[in-house]
Every structure is written in structure tokens, then in C-alpha cells.
Amino acid sequence: MITKVSVRLKELKQIDQLVEHGIFQSRSEAIRELILAGIAYLSEVFRAVDRLFELERMEGRITIDLSGVTRQILKER
To answer: Residue 15's CB: how many other CB atoms inside 10 A?
Structure first.
């Protein structure tokens, strides 16, 4: 299922360049593929978070505070 969403981007110029150079056929395709690449890039983070929540379910508490962690990881990379 495909869901349409509205977003605000500062990076639209770079996305348009990818389309102009023929790397992608449209903005939508470029954005979709870039999001998929980001998800793949952060797959280890997603697995670690899933593991932490699994531990929380098993132990009844979470071992660390995750607030702001994803944003911090992205900032560091």
C-alpha cells in the first residue's frame, strides 16, 4: 500500500539535481529511494531498539532511556 504524505524539505535542490541528471525519474522516486537507503543504513539501530523493547517486555523495565537517541545517532553520522 502506498500512502501519500506531505513533507517540508530544505534539500529539494539536491533531489531535483538527481532527477535532472537522470538518476531518478521523479522527485517521488528519488525521495522514496533515499528513504529506503536511510532505513537500510540505520537497520542496526532499528534492530538494537527492537532488542531493547524485547528486554523491556521480558524484564518489565527498559535498560536505558531512548529519548532523542535516533536524532543523536543521525547527527553523529
So the answer is: 19
